[in-house]
Amino acid sequence: MATPTTALRRLLPSTRSAALQQLTTPRKAAMSTKATSIAARTTSTSLQMPAALIRSRPAFLQQTCYATQRYYSSGTRDKSSQPLVDQKDKSAVSVADKKVHLRWIDGTTSRFHSFWLRDHCHCPECYHTVTKQRLVNTFKIPRDVKPKSVTPTSTGLEVVWDHDNHKSFYSYSWLNKHSYDPKIRDPYKPEGAAKVTWDNSIASNLPEVAYKDVMESDKGLAAWLDNIHVYGFSFVSGVPVSTEATEELAKRIAFIRETHYGGFWDFTSDLGHGDTAYTDIALGSHTDTTYFTDPAGLQMFHLLHHDGEGGLNLLVDGFHCAKVLKEQYPESYKTLSKISVPSHSAGDAATHIVPSPRHNPILNHDQVTKDLVQIRFNNDDRSTLDHLDADQVEAFYSALFDWNKVLTDEKHMLWTKFQPGRVVIFDNWRCLHGRSSFTGKRRMCGAYTNWDDYRSRWRTLNTSAEQLAEDL
Ligand SMILES: [Fe+2]
Ligand SMILES: [Zn+2]
């Protein structure tokens, strides 16, 4: 929610004609019986997601969109029934150097510190089976704890501890998944179906689900959430044109996130809040709430009414643009991943919001996996850059210009015109959004959802409880 930069404002009119031309494509797609939506096709086939989604992904998308190689499907995890450990091999398990050594069937040996094993005991005494919280008192485990015996069974290792005869059991699959020396499977690997990043050629086959499916079954809801996971956004068709129905739709995912803009929004261009979202001026690509410590996860919009001109809606895949930036301007990618910027929301008299930490990079990565996990970019909500070193000032502006170049590349800009009855929802940590200026009366409603609550809902609907428990 903010004004575009002058540069972006200048760019917007020129992109409008291209956007108008493109508008015919999604409209045609929406009207065509042949162009059944991606998720609609999934629901009609099986919904054994996420593998089903990968299979059903149109060849068109596979050819033209970049699929990040580092994302994997939990559905593609190795579920072979082959044993992980050779039961007959008596030397597969040994204890040495305060560690339990376990040789896998492929010859790899994992080493587990004795203390680590005792600390990770998942017996009912040490780990609550329902709450999945640790009950073991780490600080009462002797630092030199050692096994009295280690017995391989058909499904895992049984360990009896020397000092108190406590019996622990670790399944081979759990040990294999959480092996850290060496790392065999990365437990921090992003879950779910492979993400598909896109440019505006996605316009001819937009991810879409039917309102009825989402409201009537968890399968429909799972398909909707998986669209958001894979593409970063999804349309929902056939939504009753009312705030009530839209609010119910949002609540299918999780409770609505309240902010200083309220909970569920129903707004026009009346400057109801001190933010340019509540005006009729053009807004360049941005993510919302960069000024929150925890930016809003999902953002939903439903255009209830518009009787004027303009007001085209822009979506940009930030992950795709980040990849392009990394390829074409690697130094700029590094700069925007390292240099952090301050932001604020202070448009209402009683509001003065700044995040903690006060400064955050535009490109945010997982500390362990190094994967890009969050785009945090609103050039208009940026506060004064007085924290940079002199040489950082040059580097930052140079990188910012490269980023803007990629974001405003026409082929990265997906322009659509929202319609009453057709809701859009997008991942605010991945997709940037904007709009062209408009005339006339325009009424929009929508909501934010917390990132964690969206991911939790997606995860529990798309992955088995056993799998999720083992991942912890
Ligand atoms: Fe916004
Ligand atoms: Zn235990």
Q: Which tags fit this structure?
A:
binds fe (ii) ion; GBBH-like_N; TauD-like_sf; single chain; Double-stranded beta-helix; 472 residues; carnitine biosynthesis; six-stranded mixed β-sheet; iron; metal-binding; alpha+beta; four-stranded antiparallel β-sheet
Map the helices and strands.
Elements: H1 6-31, H2 38-45, H3 51-56, H4 59-64, E1 66-67, E2 93-96, E3 99-103, E4 109-113, H5 114-119, E5 147-152, E6 156-161, E7 167-171, H6 172-178, E8 196-197, E9 208-210, H7 211-216, H8 218-231, E10 233-237, H9 243-253, E11 265-267, E12 283-286, E13 298-306, E14 313-317, H10 318-328, H11 330-338, E15 340-342, E16 359-361, E17 363-365, E18 372-375, H12 390-407, E19 414-416, E20 423-427, E21 431-435, E22 442-449, H13 451-462, H14 465-471
Helix pairs in contact: 2-8, 8-13, 10-11, 10-12, 11-12
The global form is elongated
Give the tally of β-strands: 22
Question: What is the gyration radius calculated from CA atoms?
Answer: 25 Å
Number of self-contained structural domains: 2
The level 1 CATH classification of the largest domain is Alpha Beta
Report the sheet with the most strands, covering strand number, pairing sense and barrel closure: 6 strands, mixed
- Count the DSSP helices: 14
CATH fold annotation of the largest domain: Double-stranded beta-helix
Contiguous runs where pLDDT drops below 50 for at least 5 residues:
1-79
GO cellular component, one term: mitochondrion
GO molecular function: iron ion binding; trimethyllysine dioxygenase activity
Family: Belongs to the gamma-BBH/TMLD family.
InterPro entries: AlphaKG_dependent_hydroxylases, GBBH-like_N, GBBH-like_N_sf, TauD-like_sf, TauD/TfdA-like, Trimethyllysine_dOase
